[in-house]
Design a protein that fits this description.
With 324 residues, the chain is α/β, with parallel strands linked by helices. It folds into 2 domains: 11-161, Rossmann fold, CATH 3.40.50; 167-322, Up-down Bundle (Zinc Finger, Delta Prime, domain 3), CATH 1.20.272. It has 16 helices and 5 strands. It has helices spanning 11-23, 40-52, 57-62, 83-96, 111-114, 120-131, 151-155, 167-176, 181-190, 195-201, 206-221, 226-237, 242-260, 274-284, 286-305, 309-322; strands at residues 29-33, 68-70, 104-108, 137-143, 158-161. Strands 2-3-4-1-5 form a 5-stranded parallel β-sheet. Helix 4 (83-96) links the parallel strand 2 (68-70) and strand 3 (104-108). The longest helix is centred in the last third of the chain and has 20 residues, at 286-305. The radius of gyration is 22 Å and the shape is globular.
Length: 324
């Protein structure tokens, strides 16, 4: 079995990695760019598996192989890696690696959180190693928002883009986990091409609840009741995963735009609700639906910096109403 066979929906990235392995030209640093939950970490481990060898795979999987280390951010992804830990643990490990194999891999699943440009101390410490790479040691940085990394780190890493997964791929992943077909379709449509998010949505009826919320937001923003706008803004602000809820709302409006442009039912993400999607898409129009997708996409960065979620959602629903 090929080390990369388990990675779905990323043919471009997988083909590029296979060429790297076949030619034996492993770079000192890679930057895997793309949304979370689309296979970046799987691809990093597959690269290590392909280079180090199949016999090492059980230990790589279990995290016990000395030449494959995974370093995650502190505090559930909200804090950068401490400079002391980077120097005393990570870079010291890199200095003496590889230990058993010919190559060693240091993988950072959320590099844009571990080494953010806003806190350059850890990034600058890493940069010194990237500027003078040791043969046989490869850093694999995974980033959803690579623009948050120091430009000098990005420039010394070979970029590889990972795309959002097609809904059919996500549905297949959910089916393998025992999710029923209708829930899988809704979760895949709302997940925006992310398998991890789809799995989360499939639990506890979250997918159906978020679809109902998306329909309610659309209905209210097209209505003439300011009090309803306030109510739906309050409902949005109370979401456990607000960013995820907004991404799902963007996926909903993207489908309305596709419907308004006349794409066939089978190409709609919410194809099980094609009549509803076509009706609302026709009412809103492709331009306005696309404008709402763009607004929701650009608000993610503002949301990160805005501690007052309630105020942010109040502003959002009124901006959605006027989006053209």
């Amino acid at each position: 079995m090929d080390a990369f066979d388990a990675i779905r929906g990323q043919s471009h990235a997988v083909d590029a990695l296979r060429r790297v392995v076949d030619r034996g030209r492993i770079a000192s640093a890679y930057l895997f760019e793309g949304p979370s939950g689309v296979g970046k970490e799987k691809a990093a481990l597959a690269l290590a598996r392909a280079v180090i060898g199949e016999k090492a795979w059980p230990r790589i999987q279990s995290g016990s192989h000395p030449d494959v280390r995974i370093y995650r951010p502190r505090d559930e992804g909200h804090r950068n890696i401490r400079v002391e830990f980077l120097r005393e643990e990570i870079l010291r490990h890199a200095e003496y690696a590889p230990f058993e194999a010919k190559n060693s891999f240091l993988i950072f699943p959320e590099a844009d959180v571990s080494f953010p440009e806003i806190h350059p101390e850890s990034g600058n410490a890493l940069l010194k190693t990237l500027e003078e790479p040791k043969p046989g040691v490869t850093f694999v940085l995974l980033a959803e928002r690579p623009q948050r990394l120091l430009p000098t780190i990005r420039s010394r890493s070979q970029p590889l883009r990972f795309q959002r997964l097609d809904a059919e791929v996500v549905e297949a992943v959910l089916a393998e986990q025992g999710v029923d077909a209708e829930t899988a379709v809704i979760a895949a449509a709302l997940a925006g091409g992310r398998a991890d998010k789809a799995l989360w949505l499939a639990e506890e009826d979250r997918a159906a609840q978020l679809l109902e919320l998306a329909e309610r937001v659309d209905e209210v923003t097209e209505g003439h009741r300011p009090d309803q706008l306030v109510d739906v803004a309050d409902e949005l602000s109370k979401q456990d995963d607000l960013r995820g809820a907004l991404e799902s709302l963007a996926a909903f409006y993207a489908d309305l735009a596709r419907a308004a442009l006349g794409v066939p039912d089978e190409r709609l993400a919410f194809r099980h609700r094609a009549d509803l999607i076509r009706r609302r898409g026709a009412r809103l129009g492709a331009r306005r639906a696309s404008a709402r997708v763009e607004l929701l996409t650009t608000i993610f960065e503002d949301l990160d910096a805005n501690a007052n979620k309630s105020a942010a959602m109040d502003s959002l629903v009124f901006r959605l109403r006027s989006a053209r």
